[in-house]
Records
---
Amino acid sequence: MKEKTPVAVLGATGMVGQQLLTMLQDHPWFYVSEMVASERRAGIPYGETTRWMVDTTLPPAMALLTLKGPNEALASPLVFSCLGARVARDLEPVLVQNGHLVVSNASAFRRNPDVPLLIPEVNPESLRLLSAQRVIGGRGGLVTNPNCVVAGLALGLAPLHHAFRLTKATVVTLQAVSGAGIPGVGAVELVDNLIPWIEGEEDKIAYETARILEAPLAISASVHRVAVLHGHTMSVSISMERTPSREDIIGAWEAFRPPGDVAGLPTCPLRPIVYVHDVQRPQPRLDRMAGRGMSITIGRLRPCPVLGFAFELCVHNLVRGAAGAALLNAELCARRGLIP
Amino acid sequence: MKEKTPVAVLGATGMVGQQLLTMLQDHPWFYVSEMVASERRAGIPYGETTRWMVDTTLPPAMALLTLKGPNEALASPLVFSCLGARVARDLEPVLVQNGHLVVSNASAFRRNPDVPLLIPEVNPESLRLLSAQRVIGGRGGLVTNPNCVVAGLALGLAPLHHAFRLTKATVVTLQAVSGAGIPGVGAVELVDNLIPWIEGEEDKIAYETARILEAPLAISASVHRVAVLHGHTMSVSISMERTPSREDIIGAWEAFRPPGDVAGLPTCPLRPIVYVHDVQRPQPRLDRMAGRGMSITIGRLRPCPVLGFAFELCVHNLVRGAAGAALLNAELCARRGLIP
Amino acid sequence: MKEKTPVAVLGATGMVGQQLLTMLQDHPWFYVSEMVASERRAGIPYGETTRWMVDTTLPPAMALLTLKGPNEALASPLVFSCLGARVARDLEPVLVQNGHLVVSNASAFRRNPDVPLLIPEVNPESLRLLSAQRVIGGRGGLVTNPNCVVAGLALGLAPLHHAFRLTKATVVTLQAVSGAGIPGVGAVELVDNLIPWIEGEEDKIAYETARILEAPLAISASVHRVAVLHGHTMSVSISMERTPSREDIIGAWEAFRPPGDVAGLPTCPLRPIVYVHDVQRPQPRLDRMAGRGMSITIGRLRPCPVLGFAFELCVHNLVRGAAGAALLNAELCARRGLIP
Amino acid sequence: MKEKTPVAVLGATGMVGQQLLTMLQDHPWFYVSEMVASERRAGIPYGETTRWMVDTTLPPAMALLTLKGPNEALASPLVFSCLGARVARDLEPVLVQNGHLVVSNASAFRRNPDVPLLIPEVNPESLRLLSAQRVIGGRGGLVTNPNCVVAGLALGLAPLHHAFRLTKATVVTLQAVSGAGIPGVGAVELVDNLIPWIEGEEDKIAYETARILEAPLAISASVHRVAVLHGHTMSVSISMERTPSREDIIGAWEAFRPPGDVAGLPTCPLRPIVYVHDVQRPQPRLDRMAGRGMSITIGRLRPCPVLGFAFELCVHNLVRGAAGAALLNAELCARRGLIP
């Protein structure tokens, strides 16, 4: 049995960081060796300074780990970044230059053409960009995963795009509160209410989805925050070049499997896309944990009189949409020998 | 001062019935003289058998009114129907034949070409159908208002259609629980959850909106139930024949006023359409009571890369979408001397 | 007609400040002349810097008022303080010394024996402390209202204490999110959840209730935050020296009226205590607006096998519990000629 | 390896039935052989007629099982009853007479002195009543578990009662919606609201707790339904004959272990009582799954100025409070050879 790789987690006290820690707890390849938080928390044991919000228990060994400050040197070759975009923009390049492989959930470098924006089941070939980075930058590197909506949307669209060529898509989201982190949206704003706007989100959805699918796809996104804890739901309408039947589309989803060396990665689900036939599904509470949170659930495929077809899609924003996305990316890097 | 007209309310114990009673409480033209409920409640005072769910106090005089059964003769010339579709289908024609003007919120006869599907500010001329009914059926008549989503959507689209000719629209709704009546959706289904489906709703939205706008409009509707008490929010994208600017569209909304004899009706708002410039609005809790619940609120007008323009719209489903819609219809009938 | 008194509002951008502004909008005696916020907002029109959270529209005239900084001199003789305790501790004494009557909702000076802790219907005589302040401090003065739970609890207990002498009380609260201000508790903490703790709250409840009732009352408080927007509900059990019947207690509540010169104040309800006989009431959504938010609602009075009697009580935390409490206090000061 | 015992589940389509099915899915001793529902569902495969509400996937093998009607003969020696009280009152005695061991979650026979009201960790000796039943009634028998609140409360009080003799307790509950079954309370009643009443609940809490603890304990219960999905929280105050310190009480909880042959049952947690030191806990969302839902979580132990000590307790109403309670009871019966 191979030795496990030590990893560092940046932004470990946030919502995504907490989720990642629970997923790393019994990971077969990685173990958490270092955690990094903001300067004012440096030197404090993780468990003492973290408002634990995930419904599994905080692993005791992790509770005792002392937090490092953002500027301390890290010993771990693999660094997970669960930082906000602003901090990530400054910190991630430094880590890359110091020779770390940074697997980031932050949005800071997702539009950088030299940085892979990776969903392993969809565009594993984008990891080639990492070699290009290394020609310039040494052994370090940066890999990003998409926004939590895109993580589900691009995965659901991928088999349709490959089989039928997408041309247009409208997506209207109903997003969970855990996507806004801690403290996020106040309860006083969401009890008996919803908010039809999330800063920067609609642009990210349009840009990142098109980039991952490598398609000149016209995407119209309209986003909403609703009183759901985990699980982003979205209502999608699509136009395609070809004219598949309803059965063709469902068939494309049901036949979809992780390609090549992605299949069998510890966090990779057997079936990344689950189609449900119950007309009342997908529902975030009931479906977000499909494939231990790594499968998206699609339902209600029906003709759309305006664009062609419409359907509903649900993705666990913290698992497939953030922590699990980064972890799966890191696993693919590990399998390909890309960890320094 | 003219004497007030006595009115009967069918389905008075339901959610829409309760809302209507509160709006009739100090009405300048009408007073509640009779209430009708299901057979098993007949003979019981209203206040004793009703689970009062509206947050204003039940008017004491109404609490004492004894409920009539569905087959008892009614003395009131004007009858409001807040019935479910199945019961309405049987009962409303009988009342019409007995010479009552039935102003109905039920969906049973909305597709009947002889029955007005009326939003006074949008298609007041549809009331002419009432005369046709009377040629056949005596002094009675039936007038309906649209579905609670359509009540807001058709109103918001009307000035755009008249100015710029709509060709296509997609609408994705986030609908409040009070729209499902009592008991409606269980809390166990909506805590930390949403449901991406409401029976029959998408068809109603497509059909009724096109009928009211008298437009061969392709409409794609996707509906969701969310944990909001009152206020349906919808994300709308539209294509138009002409190519207005953003300012043109906002201008059309802001210039919209109730036409002719509709203006000044007791329940008619001065401005049926309110445009809000705050990017985080409309929100159901904050905006549903605009114009005492009779104005819709629109915001976030922006280019839609797929269809042309996108915006968010909020309508109070119980007021503008149901009880207030019926009441305004009745007021227009009264002003035009159409009450028997 | 007397001229209206200009008033200043400190902490006008917060939840309580917003509620107070709506209540001052058409006030017969006062008008908002100045608003004060934190230094960084000084000089900005109120409407531009405030995240308006109250469901009535922000009065346009107020939206245009330019915010003053905390250290600017104020011209208004009457100053409402909706500040947090920490800022209030520094700022309120300065304003008093500058000759203002400060009517405060902050907790900073509620335990000061020279400062009235006033509920006009319960202990109007406590206003005498103001004269004592003035002997020392000139024309200025400070009047406080109790914590939002105590505002309801002490009012509900007062007629029982006077008639039957309370000896013990346990109170378990289910408190609304608007009581925590903006942003308050995150939605991520309250969706499908509750929090059994609010910092400092249990002590305030025990101390302030006993002070207002002037009783050596043993009070045990246990507090919870729940996903309700407005309206604190509490489950109360009491022991009394005398042994009234259930009817005696309900009679004491129903007979309770505002005393002397408190009755008829603009914000004073005719019946500060409403007893409801429906076994499922009081409910915050249905009962919080009783008496335009200034009446508390009590129900379910029943024998308690441990202490004597138990009942449920609901108070609108923002109206009777905060903004309305301060406003009523100011009105009593005005009626008694205590405004400088 | 012993063969598994076939079991029948009555009321399999309800909330408790669904939870029980998931817990029986990989049970080491039992397997689901028969399911019984109401007459109108008889003959239909379980998966076709059940609105699945539990967030784990419905086991496919179970989805295919054909439902039996309430009067069909059952082959399984062990029958779980997840029925409502009214149906249970008629059906359970018949099953007992037909020789089945009925392990019931229904309230119908909990007050029958010949029927064990069992929490294995607390009063395992109550199973002796089963032998008495059999003297009269053959090989069949009936065992009940307590109400979902009592399942947590009596467990939390047991070690205190044994060590310090309880005399009085007040308990105020904040109960989850899944406790009301399907459809239960409407969302329209609980969005931005709570309900301070549940029919019959307060009596059950007082009676059942005293019976299980075999104590002449004065209990005052006040119950509330809140917008939480799973997990009943309660605020408890107690008086005791002896005068333990805070440490003594926490020590009694932390030392508590399942007694004798209860320890090691498949569904029995290692530590049925978990004390949390975080002042903001227990919270239902974060703590309900302690011990896979079979451990209760207690926190905030503090002096109560009225009764002695106060604390907060959380129990998963569907697991420890219902399905898991019945399952653990059945396991104890199995270990003791009491299954026919």
---
Amino acid sequence: MTLSKLPEIMIEPCVRAALLEDLGRAGDITSDAIIDPAATATVALAAREPGVIAGLDFSRIAFRLIDPAITLRIHLDDGTKVAPGDVIAHITGPARGILTAERVALNFLGHFSGIATATAAIAASIAHTKAKITCTRKTTPGLRFAEKYAVRAGGGANHRFGLDDAILIKDNHIAIAGGIAPAISRARERIGHLVKIEVEVDTLEQLEEALAHQPDAILLDNMTPATLREAVRLIAGRAITEASGRITAQTAPEIAETGIDLLSAGWLTHSARVLDIGLDFVGVS
Amino acid sequence: MTLSKLPEIMIEPCVRAALLEDLGRAGDITSDAIIDPAATATVALAAREPGVIAGLDFSRIAFRLIDPAITLRIHLDDGTKVAPGDVIAHITGPARGILTAERVALNFLGHFSGIATATAAIAASIAHTKAKITCTRKTTPGLRFAEKYAVRAGGGANHRFGLDDAILIKDNHIAIAGGIAPAISRARERIGHLVKIEVEVDTLEQLEEALAHQPDAILLDNMTPATLREAVRLIAGRAITEASGRITAQTAPEIAETGIDLLSAGWLTHSARVLDIGLDFVGVS
Amino acid sequence: MTLSKLPEIMIEPCVRAALLEDLGRAGDITSDAIIDPAATATVALAAREPGVIAGLDFSRIAFRLIDPAITLRIHLDDGTKVAPGDVIAHITGPARGILTAERVALNFLGHFSGIATATAAIAASIAHTKAKITCTRKTTPGLRFAEKYAVRAGGGANHRFGLDDAILIKDNHIAIAGGIAPAISRARERIGHLVKIEVEVDTLEQLEEALAHQPDAILLDNMTPATLREAVRLIAGRAITEASGRITAQTAPEIAETGIDLLSAGWLTHSARVLDIGLDFVGVS
Amino acid sequence: MTLSKLPEIMIEPCVRAALLEDLGRAGDITSDAIIDPAATATVALAAREPGVIAGLDFSRIAFRLIDPAITLRIHLDDGTKVAPGDVIAHITGPARGILTAERVALNFLGHFSGIATATAAIAASIAHTKAKITCTRKTTPGLRFAEKYAVRAGGGANHRFGLDDAILIKDNHIAIAGGIAPAISRARERIGHLVKIEVEVDTLEQLEEALAHQPDAILLDNMTPATLREAVRLIAGRAITEASGRITAQTAPEIAETGIDLLSAGWLTHSARVLDIGLDFVGVS
Amino acid sequence: MTLSKLPEIMIEPCVRAALLEDLGRAGDITSDAIIDPAATATVALAAREPGVIAGLDFSRIAFRLIDPAITLRIHLDDGTKVAPGDVIAHITGPARGILTAERVALNFLGHFSGIATATAAIAASIAHTKAKITCTRKTTPGLRFAEKYAVRAGGGANHRFGLDDAILIKDNHIAIAGGIAPAISRARERIGHLVKIEVEVDTLEQLEEALAHQPDAILLDNMTPATLREAVRLIAGRAITEASGRITAQTAPEIAETGIDLLSAGWLTHSARVLDIGLDFVGVS
Amino acid sequence: MTLSKLPEIMIEPCVRAALLEDLGRAGDITSDAIIDPAATATVALAAREPGVIAGLDFSRIAFRLIDPAITLRIHLDDGTKVAPGDVIAHITGPARGILTAERVALNFLGHFSGIATATAAIAASIAHTKAKITCTRKTTPGLRFAEKYAVRAGGGANHRFGLDDAILIKDNHIAIAGGIAPAISRARERIGHLVKIEVEVDTLEQLEEALAHQPDAILLDNMTPATLREAVRLIAGRAITEASGRITAQTAPEIAETGIDLLSAGWLTHSARVLDIGLDFVGVS
């Protein structure tokens, strides 16, 4: 399965804003003062720890927006596993521009690679099952489209991209709507024909109530593996099954082995540690 | 020391963009389908784990932008320590709007509170020294101003906000500029009178070279406590001292006890785990 | 079934841009020159022809953005049928502001009401069947979210909001992908669990090929009622059925009576005639 | 008379926004899943009905923004008459990008060509007179500059572009200002030396009152051909004359033959049916 | 003649951008550090030199955007003459916010008042003639609409607001078009009926050529008073007359006395000295 | 000392906005009507008076954004002294585009060159001393980063770029904070380690109070040369010294000879006269 790249038109405004945030009103006063404008250099973008990379286009565009004379030779692309010391790309061009764009390029790459790495770890831990790992809407404001891409780069699946692309009926909806049954039926009569309905349930009793109204998917929240297994048995293929709550590379295998379709984890996008990637000076060029 | 709030004019565009990202083109189709537009509710914004809160204005504005009829009674403000179960605020108003704004409000609050919590943990661990904990430019693109605020809310100090508000001469600058001496002297002759110069050094030899050119601050990168102690002795108050590299609540005390002025940690802003804060249904109101 | 209003946060930027487009660099030079700034007036927003109104919030916000002292008493809300002469709202306040905002307020209201009216006409013509009328992605650039809302106000259903919220495999996709079978199976293995797949077919042969791969929905393009009836029989409830091509209030009933689930018409959003709504001077107030 | 093209700087933001509206947060999930990223194709942009084309630059830029590797060979440019089957351009390049940009490219082209076609029909119907057809400010919010261009592409003339580029005194202005005389004289004393004044009149009595104050142009609203002829006689070249109300290709000739200078029709920009233009697969290339 | 205020919707984005430019990423670190958040103050906005004020709405909105609790009592409005020491407004509210908004509020007010003052000086010097003073398109990028307003506040008239609201044929146009005659006739056949044509001429020979083609206005560039007088005589009311080149309060009377209609001066908007207006501390309140 | 250029990413949005402001909704109707689209021309960008140029990149980008086929051969770059008649650049390409971009290109170039020229005049007048001339935050809203650059191009130094990059304690801060001592000490305990503190004093008494709290810099406001000399003596190198108030090329030498480090003048950015630079037609090319 190949990873589809994001169109540049979606990436560029994001990179542009980050560069302007960093340049402020005076620009890179350190490089401007110290570095000869004619100096050129080659640097290596290198992994400092094992992981999976994601977001190279963000870095590439950061360098280009600062100086189109900077070129990248990309050796390892998004979705690739890296080991410490692996050179992801060589970057050559005006030294000033390279130094000016460095931090923004790394901030994006480290952040998205961190997400891909965390996703890949869980994906690997459940590779012996049919289950997939998926993310949530617990994303960093402004970066959702890209964080979801990073999850895909790590081998994960995507959940909803927003409030508007699927129905997800959660505990508070049920409480206010007066129950699972009215919630699902009201949803069904109002939505478009390409919209699916998922319902969150906390107990097997809620599950039975939900099943009676034929949702497309059921989110089994914070259940033990034993309960999950029983839930999967009860559902019997009538809905896609998703388990959430405390999913880590340690807990994932046991959960996946219950026969569940999906494991979802908010922390992939909101709390994954960045992947340590650095820029090493190779030489003047 | 009171924490100064960010002006709303800086916060609002950020919250507005996050809400539009989540609403997409069809809005909150779940709440729209299920929740009676006349229903009102009260929910409690409550901590699920211990930490320090930051970013309440982002949450408050998220609810207001979705529906000005939603009101918040804030019980615990930014910078406050919370224990699991502590109610930070009660939110009352149209149920639909509360549910629509919930995720964005929590995404901001959890993210900034996570940073404040991580900062506060280190700050507490070095409270017996004169040292302060500070952040870096390794921030989430688009959120730097707010993540820096979260660091302040956690009791930390702020480093540079961008490439333009201070000179920071790092290893790659030195390599390309041809040494510490030319780097500092070129910087000094070009910068404004309110701009300070900091130099990164990796060894005591580099430190001595740097000291000869009187930088305002010296970043001692990845040194052992013993070397740091020696560096502080050599500097002897002639420059502000900053230690970086592997700063955690565990390692911080020993580093701080070397007499260093500042400990800096990029992970505070790029890898702090979000603080788990949730919205609990209290009742229809 | 109540119509859910769009959140103001989605509407306001759109209205703001339209007002600035009309004000240009010099503002409303006619009203500024002619109308006493102290003059106040009451005008009636009245239908000049029968139809269904949609977009009143756009008009209301246009008046408010020009002058918050202008107030609207809304008598008939979005989704309501109107007859010629029906007064939709009375608008009272500074005369200058009312005249300045008039054209933008009417441009939005007429456009969206035109869409709602066209939709309602078809909806009425097929009310004796289970079929619903739906729109497409053939919308006016920049106004999709609002035109989709207008379709809902007219009693229609919404199709995809963009390229990203469902899979729709069309003739060109099939030609390039090398057939319906590979297209559907590649789609299924890559998409999220809340994403549905619809396939466009032009013939009953294609339909059989598609059915073998279990799409969620099938778009039957440009078929005669007889062929549609046969297609519906073949599908036998295994997929949602949608008919497209030359749908008008005249042709719709016969198509709907084939047992189809949905009729889709691009012209609802790209070619519906505006509804004639005007602003009548009532008096100085 | 050659048609002047709009500068790209005016077009591009509009196309960019439309593409982002369609891509949403996940991009073109259909093409990404189904189409081999290495596949290339040639498609033909072809008219499906007779008309006049306008807006090719919008389509061209849409393809370029999605993928600069896509090239267009344009055979027929804006302002050209087309017959069903006429190939307007051939488009060659990566198949994914062509499919992704298709809908937006067609939405612009169909909309503007629809306006040009409607304008051209009326222009042709009055070609034996000196009269010209012109549009109004009843345009689609956000697209006024482009819809006015489409009118020019169809051989029409442009009226005001906004509230700020000419004085147009309408019925409500007259009612609130207290008459035609004070309205015109106040306007004249306040406006710049390059601003013209037009007044709307409904009757020959109003016309005489207006003529006494020497407006540059007079809008004769909803008058019969006989009354228009009398009005033109009374004006006797002292002002430009414009007729509005129910202008169609059927009614236009009789109105134009009254000797009027301009016929104006709001529906050209707000209610013209799109011109049916499609993208036909030619082959892999 | 009353001065019409600019709609807030035109002003606010401009003020918002200026505040964000000044706040940067850390906000007002001086006031935040020093001023008690509970402190309130009253300050007086006072003229320090004689002039005419313009732009008070920009200042008022600056304070409001920083803190809505700040209130202004405006004593002297736009267009008013002030003497040194005159208090234009009293400003009361949270001291922090007042100090934070101060510089932006004064930058706008000083700049626009400087333009109004320069305009008023020339207007006064030619008040004994029928001539008016007008500005040009030589404005500060981004502020044209507001600088044109400032000219009106000073009693001046406005020339074109952009390239699109009138035809102005200048020397380079004539050189490239191949003469005045073809230039005017091509313009006339292409433009809308509400667009005027002005031609720039440098000599009386050019003037005669221009007059033969009946432009609406003639710009007499850099002519001596004697030549201007002759030009006015030749034109004999057949076109509006405008004199440009070296217009100051000293030279204006002699030029105005030639019978010219308009004097235009680019320096009013690009080089007028700001009017010195300051904020004086009145007391804590 | 070489002048560092601003990154294009900072310049382009500014130029783009200015072009769109000038193009309005109809574009350059004069050139469109008169100039043959195939006509090409060469023009010379020439100084009409002596000065120092700044902002050529803004002009270059203006031409490129209007038509990439326009090329510039730049003979004299930013920071260069020019005499009347000096040709700064030759511009060749489509005549229409050159005429369309002309005014915006000149507005930027004239404005920034005016600032550079004014700065250079003062810099020259104090070249025999160690003092430098610096600007303030009294800048044109939206153009601060560029006006600061123009000051550098003229040989001046930059003061604060905003409220957030240094502490500057002014008279109103002192009044509200209750004195110089509490103001400085509160500032010191709250700010980051790379932030400097400057205090404004009006008298020698205030100076002594300030010195006791060791600010990094002292702004001596509106003092006579004699008092300044005494202040410099008192400070004795313990802080950077800045003199403000009535700084002109005439007064600067006497002030600079007091031994002061910096002279600051707000008028450099808010009231410098534009440098007269024009576009001369060279020929069709």
